[in-house]
Amino acid sequence: MSTLRFEALKEIFNRKPVKIEEPARRSELFGTNVFNEASMKQYLTKEAYENVMEAIKTGKKIDRRVSDHISTGMKEWAIAKGATHYTHWFQPLTGATAEKHDAFFETQGDGTAIEKFGGGALVQQEPDASSFPSGGIRNTFEARGYTAWDPTSPAFLWGTTLCIPTIFVSYTGEALDFKTPLLRALQSVDQAATSVAKYFDKNVSKVTATLGWEQEYFLIDSALAATRPDLTLAGRTLLGHSPAKGQQLDDHYFGSIPSRVLAYMRDLEIECMKLGIPVKTRHNEVAPNQFELAPIFEEGNLAVDHNSLIMDIMSKIAEKHHFKVILHEKPFAGINGSGKHNNWSLSTDTGTNLLAPGTTPMKNLQFLTFFINILKAVHDNEELLRAGIASASNDHRLGANEAPPAIISAFIGSQLTEVLDELEKVTDGKLSPKEKTELKLNVVGKIPEILLDNTDRNRTSSFAFTGNKFEFRAVGSTANCGNPMTILNSILAKQLIEFKTEVDALIKGEKMKKDDAIFNVLREYIKKSKNIRFEGDGYGEAWEKEAKKRGLSNNRTTPQALKALVSEKTRSLFKDLKVMNKIELEARHEIQLEDYAMRIQIEGRILGDIARNHVIPTAVRYQNILIENVEGLKHIYNEDFKKHSNEQLEIIEEISAHIAKINSGVKAMIEARKVANKIEDAEKRAFAYCDDVKPYFDEIRYHCDKLELVVDDELWPLTKYRELLFTR
Ligand code: ADP
Ligand code: MG
C-alpha cells in the first residue's frame, strides 16, 4: 500500500467517535430555531401576526408599515437566540443555496451603535447578482437582481445567522431561481385542483401539493476522500477498478448502521429537529457506504426548501464527523448510484388526501378523477418530465440498469389496472341506472379494500403509484426538487383545467348528470393515456423496444432531453399557467446546457490530469522495477534468462500497451475539447461535449483500471474502491 493511502487509513483507525448530546425527547427540539407560528405569536403584534398569517394562507401582500413590525419581532427573536447576522437565503440556478450575511449592527453617527433590522431589509434585498447564472436575462451592465421574502416558508436560525427564505428575480421580474416558478406552479395547481375537488365537496377552498422526498447519499471518510482528486473536484470517481466484493451479497441494504455513521445521523437529525425539518427515517442503502434519509411529507414549497437546506447542512455536520457526504448520482462505477424519490400528492383544506381512496363511492370517484388526470398529464408530458430531471450527473443513473430508465412510465399495480379496464367499458353518453349502480358498487366502491392488498411495488418504474401518492423515482440525488415539482404540478394544473372544461361542457351541452359526465371524460382519458402505463420490468431491454413502439421518448442524454424544455408545447403550457414565459424557459435551457458542458469539461480535465500525473508515472515506475528484475535475471542466467523472465516481459509489454492507449486517449480528448470550446452555440457545444468528448472517458478509464490490477499495490497512489467503500 502506498504511504499516502496508508497514512489516510491509519488516521481513520485513530478516529474517536463524536459524542452526541441527545435531548430527552426530540419533539421538544422541534422547530426551536424556526420563526414559526408559536414564536410569531410571542414576538409580533397582533396586527403583524395576522398579516403574516393571511399572507401565508392567501398570498396577500404584506403592508409596508406592518413589515417594520415583523422585522423587529423577527430580529428580537433571533438575537435572543444568539444571532448577530441576517441573510436572504435563496436557490439560484447553480443548484446550491446562496446567502450573503449582513450584521444587525449599525452605527448611529454619535459614536454609539444599535442592532437594527428594518422592514425594507426583510422584504427585499439587492445582492450583487452578476455572477449567478442568468442565461442572458440580465446584461452585465444591468446585472441587478433582487431577492424578495417568501412568507410561506418560515425564517430560521442557522448558527448565528437569521436566514430568510426568498425568491430571486431579475430587475425586470424574470425568475432566476427554482423557487419563483415553483410558487407559481403550486398556485396554479391549487386553483385548478380546487375547482375540480368542488365537484365532490363544496367546502374545499384550497388544495396543497405535498412532497415527501427521500435522499440517498454516500459517506466516505474525509481522509480517504481527500486522496482522490476526482472525488474532491467532481464529486465522483472517474476511475477505479471494482473491488472483489461489491454489493453482490446485498448485505448492506437495511443492515445494521455502523456506529460512526449512526453518530453522524443522530447529529444531523438533531439539527434537523431544531430547524423544523421532520426527518423520520434513516437506513442503509443497497451499495456499501450508501445511506438514506427521509422526512415526513410537507407542503411542496417548504419541502423543497427543507431538502435544499438539508443538502447543505449534511456536509457541514459531516465535517465534525470526518466524513465527506457524496450526493452525486453515480459516484462509483459498478455499484448503485443515488436518487431522490419525490413522493407527491394533493391534499385539501378539508383534510382529504386526493390520492387516497376513501370509504364511499363518491370519495372514490374523486380519487379516480385525480388519479386518472395525473396519468393523462404524465402521458401527455412525459418528455417534459424527463427534461425536468436532466443533468450531467443523472445521465449516469437513468438507464444504467439500476435506476429507472430515461423512459418515463407509470406503474399503478394490477388491481388499479383492473379498475381502469372496467371503467374503460363505460357506455358512451348517459349511463343507465343499472350501470351506474354496478359501477359504484363493484368498481369504484371496491377500491379501498383493493388497495390494502396492493403491496406489489415495482421498483423499476420511474413514476409509481404507492397506495396514496405517486413516487417520482427518477429525480437525481443532487437535484433541487423545485424543478421536477414545478413541472409535475404545472402539467397537472393544465390537465385539470381541461378536464373541468370538458366535464362542464357535457353537463351543459348534453345535459348529462355530473357523475355521467365525469365517467365519460375519464373513460376517454383512460384510453388516451394507456401508453404511459407499464407494469413490467423497467430495466429490461424488452421495455425499451416496447416503449419505442408506443411512441414514448427515450432521451438518454441531457442535451437531448432538454430540447423538450423549449418546445412549442412547453412554451404554451407554462405561458398559459403564467409559470414561466419564453424568456425564462430559454434562459433555463441555456443555463442547463452550459452547466452540462462545463461539468463534462471539468471531468475531462480531472481525468486527463489523473491519467497523466498519477497513473502513467506510477505504471512507468513499476515497469522500471520489472526491467531491473529482468536485467538481473539476465546477469544470472545469461542466454537462459528468457525462460525465467517470460511473465515479467509480458507485464512490461502489457504496461506499455496500456500507457500508449491512455496517452493517445487523453490527447484525442483534449483535441475534442478544443473543438467543442470553440462552438458558440450553447446547445451545439453541449452536444459536442456529450458526443465527442465524453466517450473518451470510458476508454481512458478502462486502461487505467487495468493498470490498477497490474501495478504493485505499494506504488498505487489512488485510494482503491475497496478502501473507499469498506472502511468506516
Ligand atoms: P418507501 O417508499 O421507502 O417504501 P413510504 O412509502 O412509507 O416509504 O414513504 C416514503 C415517503 O413518502 C416518506 O418520505 C413520506 O413522507 C412520503 N409520503 C407519505 N405520504 C405522502 C403524501 N400524502 N404526500 C407526499 N409524500 C408522502
Ligand atoms: Mg420510496
From TrEMBL:
GO function term, MF aspect, one: glutamine synthetase activity
Family assignment from sequence similarity: Belongs to the glutamine synthetase family.
All copies of domain GS beta-grasp, residue ranges: 84-173
Top-rank taxon: Bacteria
Protein name (record): Glutamine synthetase
GO-annotated biological processes: glutamine biosynthetic process
Pfam families: Gln-synt_C, Gln-synt_C-ter, GSIII_N
Domain GS catalytic, chain residue ranges per copy: 178-615
InterPro entries reported in the protein's UniProt record: Gln-synt_C, Gln_synt_N, Gln_synth/guanido_kin_cat_dom, Gln_synth_cat_dom, Gln_synth_gly_rich_site, GS_Type-3, GSIII_N
